[in-house]
Amino acid sequence: MEVRNRIVGFLLILPAFLILALLYVYPLIRAIWMSFIKDGFLSLANYAKAFDIYSRDILYSVVITSVTVGFVLVLSILLASYLRFKEWRFLDIMYRLPLFIPFLIVGHAMRIFLAPHGTLNSLLTRILKVEELPGFSRSWIGLLWTFVWVMTPYAALIILGAFRALDSSYIEAARNLGASKGKIVFTVIIPMCKPSIMVAAILTFVRTISSLTILVMIGPNTPNMITVDMMFRINFFNDWGVANALGVISYLIVIVLAVYYLRFMAAERGGIKG
Amino acid sequence: MMVVLQTQNLCKSYGQVKALDDVNVYIEDAQLLAVIGPSGSGKTTLLRSIAGFVELDSGKILIKSKDVTNLPPEKRNVAMFFQNYALWPHMTVFENVAYGLKIRKYDKNTIRERVEWALDFLDIRSLAERKPSQLSGGQQQRVALARAIVIQPDVLLLDEPLSNLDAKIRMRIRFELKALQKRLKIPTLYVTHDQEEALSIADKIAIMHNGKVLQVGTPEEVYKNPVDLFIADFIGVNSVVKVKCAGEKLVEVGNLKLPVQKETVYVVIRAEETKVLPIQQRFDIAEGDLRLEGTIIGKLYLGSKYRYEIKIEGVDEVLFINSEEVYNVNEQVQIISRKGNFFIYEQ
Ligand SMILES: Nc1ncnc2c1ncn2[C@@H]1O[C@H](COP(=O)(O)OP(=O)(O)O)[C@@H](O)[C@H]1O
Ligand SMILES: [Mg+2]
Hints:
heterodimer; A: 274 residues; mainly alpha; MetI-like fold; 12 helices; 78% helix; 1% strand; B: 347 residues; alpha+beta; Rossmann fold; CATH 2.40.50.140; 2 domains; 6-stranded mixed sheet; 5-stranded antiparallel sheet; 8 helices; elongated; binds adenosine-5'-diphosphate; binds magnesium ion
């Protein structure tokens, strides 16, 4: 009886498991495997080449992504704090709008907005009373701006959800003891919502480091981020080996984060800081 | 005598619901005012408006003669005790209690001294370094109290502080709380739906119903002289006899003939202070005492006594009265209630 139940249970999850294996696990393993193959032999040559040509880009990816995460967290915590204390339906709806705009369109809009004679610069030249300004659209500033613009709503959605789920009595107890709203955000709300803020940070990191569309639309030509390098390796050199090596490197960066996150969660739950 | 807290004509509506309807209460010196009433009567709304969490429609709140009606919660020096304790889980007991002092920017030594005083006062010094999740319900409650009293508030607000504890502990804490309040001499507003708790702990009681304060007085006053049917029935353990009068000017309830003007007469009988006697037993009743005759239709054993269900001829509601005597079902009995132990109202 016991065994039969298990078999039935196994059969029930089998389709889902197969799809997952076929669409996710198999390509992942294959990509990892191929990153170690050079000219039909097992070797580290792809990695050597990837680090040789692209170590600057790898660093650049990590830095741009980290700075993006920093800005996104600050903005979304500000927004979420504001909306936690004050109901403002307009803002509540507006901040979510970018969620529904495809990256391609965002990239295009930002290209116009940030171009040498684009919206931002016409405004700035008039305010600063100067003739000409360089465009931001092919620079790290424009890229950062766009990433932050695109990623903030996602993070804010997660963080505001957590802030709103926090029982009001925790906040009221602090106000009752004399704390201002700003003080409460730092001493009560953020510490109590830390797990959700971590999730928002990690999702933002992963989404940013793996994005391609926006980079192609407005990213600087050099240095570039890992995803663009992968695309070049494949499109221009048909070099899947190095592309896969770069892919594995970005997996590893994310896995470091994931491990950090899991250890943080374990510490939150069981108090076993390691 | 100094009035520490005074509310003047507080009104607050939520849509059609009048949560507060012209509420006037006050606390003198270090009194404990218990606000009681059934669920939904506006007790929490009253407490929260004193703390500053409710935007009033009209009315004024004075604390130590100062108008605080328009001050935000953080600017009022009142301490609220939350029903769920609301201890911050990421802080230790010490940090929880120190929070209000840190906000007030006391120096480190003063904070340490005052927190340790509060922890000692509530006998929880040994828990200082624990997190709230490592405490029992009773211990959490003490921490929440320590956090509230350590800031030396002008008024202490307690919203059903004992409702999360089980019955046995509740009895003990009730007395501890009263002793603590007397020692600290903090004016206290204590909200509860448990009239027995209120009677035993309060200096004064305010009874609320549908957003209105119906009566304010000492526990003896409201117990002995309830001003209306609702209060008489709400306070104490009672049975109510309801008699409809078909246009007559006099209605007979047991031995009493009552003049009536309205449609229905209600007699609220304090069940704890009523005797059940065998029907034949001679018993001298004085002027104004109530004597009813009835039949036992059910009984429950309560340990030291029985709880009898008694049916009275011509009355729909059955009475529930406790007695140490033993009777059998279907036995005829007489019920005697002395003057002052029952109340008559018309409606
Ligand atoms: N924030 C609110 N929104 C709508 N109605 C409320 C709100 N707070 C209280 N009420 C209503 O006001 C009445 C009094 O509530 P409350 O003060 O909580 O009563 P109590 O504490 O005596 O049980 C109830 O009918 C309740 O439904
Ligand atoms: Mg309540």
